[in-house]
Amino acid sequence: MHNTVYLLYGGVSSEHDISVLSARSVVENIYYEYHDLVPVYITKKGQFLSGASLTAPLPDSTSLYLEEGSAPQWRQAKTSVGVPLDWRRLQEDNVIVFPMLHGTNGEDGTIQGWLETIGVPYVGNGVRASASAMDKIISKQIFADAGLPQVPYEWIDDTAWGMTAARTDFLNRVQGGLLYPLYVKPANAGSSIGITRVTEAEKLADAIEFAFHYDDRVLVEQGVPNAREIEMALLGNRDDLNISVPGEIGKTRSFYDFNAKFVEGQTKLIIPAKLPEETTSQLEKIAQTAFMELSAAGLCRIDFLLSDGGDVYINEVQTMPGFTQYSMYPYLWQHTGINYGDLLEELMTLGQKQFAHRRKIENNY
After folding, report:
1. What CATH number belongs to 134-148+226-357?
2. Is residue 191 among the annotated active site residues?
3. 101-111: pLDDT as tens digits
4. Which amino acids are annotated as binding site for Mg(2+), given as ranges?
5. Which of 65, 71, 119, 189 is the most buried (most CB within 10 A)?
6. Overall average pLDDT of the 200-229 stretch
7. Model pLDDT, residue 14
8. Are 234 and 299 in contact (CB under 8 A)?
């Protein structure tokens, strides 16, 4: 059955441009023999602009950035043209939404809540998992309750940071309880945006101030010297979960930052990561536990740190990981024989199953 896929991308987020890159890969790889694709660009101001429906991939030079006009048109220019989205179209038969949104106002449960309110099937995690995983402080508390290994950390909000006594107390706790190097992070951000690696006390406060540009809560984590960064992709729902082989970020620098991830394209992805069998087994168990504890659905990428001594720490969970040409998530599944187009098909099938499951629960009252 031919259906319509509404691809949401962009968004009011510091990861706006990364979302556009991910959307580009979907446009290039979705199976048009089964789907009509309607790209919906969310501007940085939150306007939803619908592009012209696609029945074939766009040329690489066509802009996915849209500006409002009288009629949708794809152009090989700085911007193409879209029209304001009539969200009632999403409620038509044979429609599914693919929210290819990263970061706040997209990956944090907000869009998912709206889609559930208007009764639309969509790809990926629901409100609870999206919100919990996006907030690094909340997710760490969930993982601690589940007994999962994590690095030591402290956190503070902007109100407390603005109070001299609370700020001094926080800095003292960090200095007295955590070992350098430290990683200062916004609680709600991804793609290494707003993160600073700190190696000396004199630079700690500035790093915290910088992180507060991206969220009103900040955490400071103890680093793992010479850590290997291992990632695993999960695909499925709670009753049928698949876990990929582990992949490793082959770093050429001490910190795998935004430029390394999305701009330079020079970071080597090592798939599969060369690990002892028992370490891989431990990673799989932690990944499955994290997925279940978050009530995740559809997909996620789970990031780990591996010390020189073989200690494993869960780091973060991405509920809508990057799908760009440099992204680990699709590469991990390609290694296991699932190409990009098939991966999109499976994710949409899982989204439909999860929608039916939610409907069944709602119909019980």
Report:
1. 3.30.470.20
2. yes
3. 998 899 999 99
4. 303, 316
5. 189
6. 95
7. 86
8. yes
